[in-house]
Amino acid sequence: MNEYVMEAQDLTKKFGDFLAVDKLNLKIRKGEVLGFLGPNGAGKTTSINMMVGLLSPSSGKVLVNNSDVEEMDKKTIGICPQELVLWENLTCNENLKLMGDMYTVPKAILVERIEKLLRDLYLTEKADTRVSNLSGGMKRRLNMAMAVIHEPEIVLLDEPSEGLDPQSRRVLWSYIRSLRDDHQKTVILTTHLMDEADRLSDRVAIIDHGKLLKLDTPENLKKEIGEGDIIELTIPDKDNKKYVMNYLETLEDTISVVEVDGKINLRAFNAVGKLPKIVAELEKSNIQIDDLSVRQNTLEDVFIELTGTGLRE
User: Fold this and answer.
1) Residue limits of the ABC transporter domain (predicted)?
2) What is the pLDDT of residues 176-197, one digit of tens each?
3) pTM listed for this prediction
Protein backbone atom coordinates (compact mmCIF):
# COMPACT_ATOMS: atom_id res chain seq x y z
CA MET A 1 0.00 0.00 0.00
CA ASN A 2 2.46 2.67 -1.16
CA GLU A 3 0.15 4.49 -3.58
CA TYR A 4 -1.22 7.69 -2.07
CA VAL A 5 -4.85 8.53 -2.73
CA MET A 6 -4.88 11.82 -0.80
CA GLU A 7 -2.21 14.31 0.20
CA ALA A 8 -2.33 17.48 2.29
CA GLN A 9 0.47 19.91 1.48
CA ASP A 10 1.20 22.70 4.00
CA LEU A 11 -2.51 22.82 4.73
CA THR A 12 -3.30 25.92 6.80
CA LYS A 13 -6.53 27.45 8.06
CA LYS A 14 -7.01 30.70 9.96
CA PHE A 15 -10.22 32.05 11.44
CA GLY A 16 -9.36 35.70 12.00
CA ASP A 17 -6.30 35.69 14.23
CA PHE A 18 -6.85 32.09 15.31
CA LEU A 19 -4.62 29.51 13.61
CA ALA A 20 -6.70 26.33 13.54
CA VAL A 21 -4.46 24.24 11.27
CA ASP A 22 -0.76 24.98 10.90
CA LYS A 23 0.96 23.69 7.74
CA LEU A 24 -0.37 20.15 7.93
CA ASN A 25 1.44 17.66 5.70
CA LEU A 26 -0.15 14.24 5.46
CA LYS A 27 -0.24 11.43 2.88
CA ILE A 28 -3.02 8.82 2.98
CA ARG A 29 -2.37 5.49 1.30
CA LYS A 30 -4.81 3.83 -1.02
CA GLY A 31 -6.68 1.00 0.70
CA GLU A 32 -5.75 1.84 4.30
CA VAL A 33 -7.75 2.78 7.35
CA LEU A 34 -6.21 5.97 8.73
CA GLY A 35 -7.17 6.84 12.29
CA PHE A 36 -7.22 10.62 12.72
CA LEU A 37 -7.00 11.53 16.39
CA GLY A 38 -6.80 14.72 18.39
CA PRO A 39 -8.24 16.39 21.49
CA ASN A 40 -11.30 18.60 21.05
CA GLY A 41 -10.18 21.90 19.54
CA ALA A 42 -6.99 20.39 18.09
CA GLY A 43 -7.88 21.25 14.48
CA LYS A 44 -8.94 17.73 13.56
CA THR A 45 -12.38 18.54 12.16
CA THR A 46 -11.13 21.63 10.33
CA SER A 47 -8.35 19.56 8.73
CA ILE A 48 -10.75 16.83 7.64
CA ASN A 49 -13.23 19.33 6.21
CA MET A 50 -10.49 20.86 4.07
CA MET A 51 -9.23 17.46 2.96
CA VAL A 52 -12.64 16.37 1.66
CA GLY A 53 -13.41 19.69 0.01
CA LEU A 54 -16.00 21.03 2.47
CA LEU A 55 -13.81 23.95 3.58
CA SER A 56 -11.32 26.07 1.66
CA PRO A 57 -7.83 26.40 3.18
CA SER A 58 -6.20 29.74 3.93
CA SER A 59 -3.10 28.35 2.24
CA GLY A 60 -1.71 25.02 1.09
CA LYS A 61 -3.62 22.46 -0.90
CA VAL A 62 -5.11 18.98 -0.96
CA LEU A 63 -4.53 16.49 -3.75
CA VAL A 64 -6.87 13.59 -4.41
CA ASN A 65 -5.44 11.09 -6.92
CA ASN A 66 -2.83 13.74 -7.78
CA SER A 67 -5.46 16.35 -8.70
CA ASP A 68 -6.63 19.34 -6.69
CA VAL A 69 -9.52 18.46 -4.38
CA GLU A 70 -11.60 21.27 -5.94
CA GLU A 71 -11.48 19.44 -9.28
CA MET A 72 -12.46 16.11 -7.73
CA ASP A 73 -15.56 14.24 -8.80
CA LYS A 74 -17.85 14.58 -5.78
CA LYS A 75 -18.64 10.86 -5.99
CA THR A 76 -15.04 10.07 -5.01
CA ILE A 77 -15.73 10.64 -1.31
CA GLY A 78 -18.51 9.37 0.95
CA ILE A 79 -19.03 11.12 4.28
CA CYS A 80 -20.63 9.54 7.32
CA PRO A 81 -21.06 12.48 9.73
CA GLN A 82 -21.24 12.24 13.50
CA GLU A 83 -24.68 13.85 13.43
CA LEU A 84 -27.22 11.53 11.81
CA VAL A 85 -28.40 12.65 8.38
CA LEU A 86 -31.57 10.65 7.80
CA TRP A 87 -35.14 11.29 6.70
CA GLU A 88 -37.10 10.18 9.76
CA ASN A 89 -40.43 9.70 7.98
CA LEU A 90 -38.98 7.49 5.25
CA THR A 91 -38.12 3.81 5.52
CA CYS A 92 -34.57 2.46 5.39
CA ASN A 93 -35.16 1.39 1.80
CA GLU A 94 -36.53 4.80 0.84
CA ASN A 95 -33.65 6.66 2.50
CA LEU A 96 -31.09 4.65 0.56
CA LYS A 97 -33.01 4.94 -2.71
CA LEU A 98 -33.26 8.71 -2.33
CA MET A 99 -29.55 9.03 -1.62
CA GLY A 100 -28.70 6.73 -4.53
CA ASP A 101 -30.87 8.82 -6.86
CA MET A 102 -29.03 11.96 -5.73
CA TYR A 103 -25.78 10.32 -6.83
CA THR A 104 -27.46 9.13 -10.07
CA VAL A 105 -26.76 5.47 -9.35
CA PRO A 106 -28.46 3.44 -12.15
CA LYS A 107 -31.73 1.89 -10.96
CA ALA A 108 -30.80 -1.77 -11.52
CA ILE A 109 -27.48 -1.32 -9.72
CA LEU A 110 -29.10 0.68 -6.93
CA VAL A 111 -31.66 -2.02 -6.08
CA GLU A 112 -28.94 -4.65 -5.78
CA ARG A 113 -26.68 -2.32 -3.81
CA ILE A 114 -29.41 -1.43 -1.31
CA GLU A 115 -30.14 -5.10 -0.66
CA LYS A 116 -26.47 -5.82 -0.02
CA LEU A 117 -25.97 -2.84 2.29
CA LEU A 118 -29.03 -3.74 4.33
CA ARG A 119 -27.77 -7.31 4.59
CA ASP A 120 -24.18 -6.36 5.46
CA LEU A 121 -25.31 -3.92 8.15
CA TYR A 122 -27.98 -6.23 9.62
CA LEU A 123 -30.90 -4.05 8.55
CA THR A 124 -32.70 -6.36 6.12
CA GLU A 125 -35.59 -6.96 8.50
CA LYS A 126 -35.96 -3.20 8.93
CA ALA A 127 -35.94 -2.37 5.21
CA ASP A 128 -39.55 -1.15 5.25
CA THR A 129 -39.46 0.34 8.75
CA ARG A 130 -39.59 4.10 9.18
CA VAL A 131 -36.35 5.58 10.48
CA SER A 132 -38.24 7.19 13.37
CA ASN A 133 -38.95 3.68 14.67
CA LEU A 134 -35.35 2.46 14.57
CA SER A 135 -33.04 2.13 17.56
CA GLY A 136 -30.01 4.38 17.88
CA GLY A 137 -27.68 1.62 16.73
CA MET A 138 -29.79 0.89 13.65
CA LYS A 139 -29.79 4.56 12.72
CA ARG A 140 -26.00 4.64 13.00
CA ARG A 141 -25.70 1.66 10.68
CA LEU A 142 -28.13 3.21 8.19
CA ASN A 143 -26.12 6.43 8.35
CA MET A 144 -23.10 4.37 7.32
CA ALA A 145 -25.00 2.79 4.42
CA MET A 146 -26.07 6.24 3.20
CA ALA A 147 -22.40 7.31 3.04
CA VAL A 148 -21.35 4.44 0.76
CA ILE A 149 -24.43 3.92 -1.43
CA HIS A 150 -22.57 5.45 -4.41
CA GLU A 151 -19.47 3.24 -3.94
CA PRO A 152 -17.02 6.07 -3.13
CA GLU A 153 -13.29 5.47 -3.34
CA ILE A 154 -12.65 7.29 -0.04
CA VAL A 155 -14.92 7.00 3.00
CA LEU A 156 -14.79 9.51 5.85
CA LEU A 157 -16.23 8.22 9.12
CA ASP A 158 -16.64 10.90 11.78
CA GLU A 159 -17.10 9.30 15.22
CA PRO A 160 -19.07 6.37 13.72
CA SER A 161 -19.45 4.50 17.03
CA GLU A 162 -20.64 7.47 19.08
CA GLY A 163 -23.18 6.27 21.65
CA LEU A 164 -23.32 2.67 20.44
CA ASP A 165 -23.65 -0.38 22.67
CA PRO A 166 -20.83 -2.97 22.41
CA GLN A 167 -22.81 -5.31 20.11
CA SER A 168 -23.67 -2.55 17.61
CA ARG A 169 -20.10 -1.30 17.75
CA ARG A 170 -18.76 -4.75 16.78
CA VAL A 171 -21.10 -4.89 13.78
CA LEU A 172 -19.89 -1.48 12.65
CA TRP A 173 -16.23 -2.38 13.19
CA SER A 174 -16.65 -5.53 11.11
CA TYR A 175 -18.17 -3.51 8.29
CA ILE A 176 -15.38 -0.91 8.42
CA ARG A 177 -12.82 -3.71 8.07
CA SER A 178 -14.77 -5.08 5.09
CA LEU A 179 -14.64 -1.68 3.37
CA ARG A 180 -10.87 -2.00 3.36
CA ASP A 181 -10.40 -5.76 2.97
CA ASP A 182 -13.24 -6.68 0.63
CA HIS A 183 -13.90 -3.45 -1.25
CA GLN A 184 -10.42 -1.85 -1.24
CA LYS A 185 -11.76 1.45 0.07
CA THR A 186 -9.62 4.07 1.76
CA VAL A 187 -11.14 4.93 5.14
CA ILE A 188 -10.44 8.04 7.19
CA LEU A 189 -11.64 7.40 10.74
CA THR A 190 -11.98 10.12 13.34
CA THR A 191 -12.72 8.82 16.81
CA HIS A 192 -12.35 9.54 20.51
CA LEU A 193 -12.33 5.79 21.22
CA MET A 194 -8.69 4.74 21.44
CA ASP A 195 -9.62 1.07 21.39
CA GLU A 196 -11.49 1.63 18.13
CA ALA A 197 -8.53 3.43 16.55
CA ASP A 198 -6.13 0.73 17.75
CA ARG A 199 -8.20 -2.18 16.43
CA LEU A 200 -9.19 -0.69 13.06
CA SER A 201 -6.38 1.61 11.93
CA ASP A 202 -3.47 0.62 9.72
CA ARG A 203 -1.86 3.91 10.68
CA VAL A 204 -2.76 6.63 13.17
CA ALA A 205 -2.27 10.38 12.77
CA ILE A 206 -2.32 12.40 16.00
CA ILE A 207 -2.89 16.14 15.72
CA ASP A 208 -2.87 18.88 18.37
CA HIS A 209 -2.85 22.66 18.20
CA GLY A 210 -3.23 22.40 14.44
CA LYS A 211 -0.01 20.42 13.97
CA LEU A 212 0.62 16.77 13.11
CA LEU A 213 2.46 15.25 16.07
CA LYS A 214 2.88 11.64 14.95
CA LEU A 215 1.94 9.35 12.08
CA ASP A 216 2.66 5.63 12.35
CA THR A 217 1.10 2.23 12.95
CA PRO A 218 -0.53 1.72 16.37
CA GLU A 219 2.05 -0.98 17.13
CA ASN A 220 5.01 1.28 16.38
CA LEU A 221 3.54 4.18 18.33
CA LYS A 222 3.05 1.96 21.39
CA LYS A 223 6.62 0.68 21.10
CA GLU A 224 8.28 4.05 20.51
CA ILE A 225 6.32 6.37 22.81
CA GLY A 226 6.11 5.65 26.51
CA GLU A 227 8.46 3.01 27.81
CA GLY A 228 7.67 0.67 30.67
CA ASP A 229 4.35 -0.68 31.91
CA ILE A 230 1.53 1.11 33.68
CA ILE A 231 0.27 0.72 37.25
CA GLU A 232 -3.20 2.23 37.69
CA LEU A 233 -4.38 3.18 41.18
CA THR A 234 -7.77 4.46 42.26
CA ILE A 235 -7.49 6.42 45.52
CA PRO A 236 -10.85 7.77 46.76
CA ASP A 237 -9.50 10.51 49.05
CA LYS A 238 -8.22 13.59 47.16
CA ASP A 239 -5.68 14.59 49.83
CA ASN A 240 -4.28 11.07 49.91
CA LYS A 241 -4.11 11.05 46.12
CA LYS A 242 -1.63 13.94 46.14
CA TYR A 243 0.50 12.18 48.76
CA VAL A 244 0.50 8.96 46.72
CA MET A 245 1.53 10.77 43.53
CA ASN A 246 4.41 12.48 45.33
CA TYR A 247 5.52 9.16 46.79
CA LEU A 248 5.40 7.34 43.45
CA GLU A 249 7.60 10.01 41.86
CA THR A 250 10.36 9.11 44.33
CA LEU A 251 10.50 5.45 43.26
CA GLU A 252 13.48 4.24 41.27
CA ASP A 253 12.98 3.91 37.48
CA THR A 254 9.76 5.92 37.53
CA ILE A 255 9.12 7.44 34.11
CA SER A 256 5.99 9.47 34.84
CA VAL A 257 3.14 9.88 37.30
CA VAL A 258 -0.06 11.46 35.98
CA GLU A 259 -3.74 11.52 36.83
CA VAL A 260 -6.07 10.36 34.06
CA ASP A 261 -9.85 10.08 34.45
CA GLY A 262 -9.52 10.12 38.24
CA LYS A 263 -6.92 7.35 38.30
CA ILE A 264 -3.23 7.65 39.14
CA ASN A 265 -1.08 6.27 36.31
CA LEU A 266 2.46 5.27 37.21
CA ARG A 267 4.65 4.47 34.22
CA ALA A 268 7.79 2.64 35.31
CA PHE A 269 10.29 -0.05 34.45
CA ASN A 270 9.71 -3.32 36.34
CA ALA A 271 6.26 -2.07 37.37
CA VAL A 272 5.21 -5.47 38.73
CA GLY A 273 8.28 -5.62 40.98
CA LYS A 274 7.32 -2.29 42.55
CA LEU A 275 3.83 -3.41 43.61
CA PRO A 276 4.73 -4.96 47.02
CA LYS A 277 6.62 -1.83 48.04
CA ILE A 278 3.80 0.47 46.92
CA VAL A 279 1.09 -1.53 48.67
CA ALA A 280 3.15 -1.74 51.86
CA GLU A 281 3.70 2.03 51.89
CA LEU A 282 0.01 2.80 51.39
CA GLU A 283 -1.04 0.31 54.06
CA LYS A 284 1.46 1.83 56.48
CA SER A 285 -0.03 5.26 55.80
CA ASN A 286 -3.62 3.92 56.12
CA ILE A 287 -4.47 4.96 52.57
CA GLN A 288 -7.38 3.12 51.01
CA ILE A 289 -7.00 1.68 47.49
CA ASP A 290 -10.27 1.17 45.62
CA ASP A 291 -8.63 -0.45 42.60
CA LEU A 292 -5.17 -1.44 41.43
CA SER A 293 -4.07 -2.94 38.11
CA VAL A 294 -1.02 -3.39 35.92
CA ARG A 295 -1.20 -3.20 32.14
CA GLN A 296 0.93 -2.67 29.06
CA ASN A 297 1.22 0.53 27.07
CA THR A 298 -1.92 1.45 25.07
CA LEU A 299 -2.73 3.86 22.27
CA GLU A 300 -4.49 6.05 24.82
CA ASP A 301 -1.23 6.28 26.78
CA VAL A 302 0.51 7.37 23.58
CA PHE A 303 -2.22 9.95 22.96
CA ILE A 304 -1.88 11.41 26.45
CA GLU A 305 1.91 11.36 26.29
CA LEU A 306 1.82 13.38 23.04
CA THR A 307 -1.00 15.81 23.79
CA GLY A 308 -0.35 16.11 27.52
CA THR A 309 -4.01 15.74 28.32
CA GLY A 310 -7.03 13.54 28.57
CA LEU A 311 -9.79 14.13 26.02
CA ARG A 312 -10.88 17.77 26.18
CA GLU A 313 -14.43 18.98 26.50
Assistant:
1) 6-234
2) 999 999 999 999 999 989 999 9
3) 0.81
Q: What is the pLDDT of residues 142-179, one digit of tens each?
A: 999 999 999 999 999 999 988 888 888 999 999 999 99
- Could you tell me if 6 and 186 are in contact, meaning their C-beta atoms sit under 8 angstroms apart? yes
Question: Looking at residue 307, what is its pLDDT?
Answer: 87
CA 4 to chain centre: 20
Q: Is 56 exposed, middle or buried (0-12, 13-18, 19+ CB in 10 A)?
A: exposed
Between CA 148 and CA 157 the distance in angstroms is 11
Show me where the domains of the chain are located: 4-222, 227-296
Q: What is the pLDDT of residues 220-229, one digit of tens each?
A: 998 888 677 8
Mean pLDDT on 231-254: 92
227-296 topology per CATH = Alpha-Beta Plaits (3.30.70)
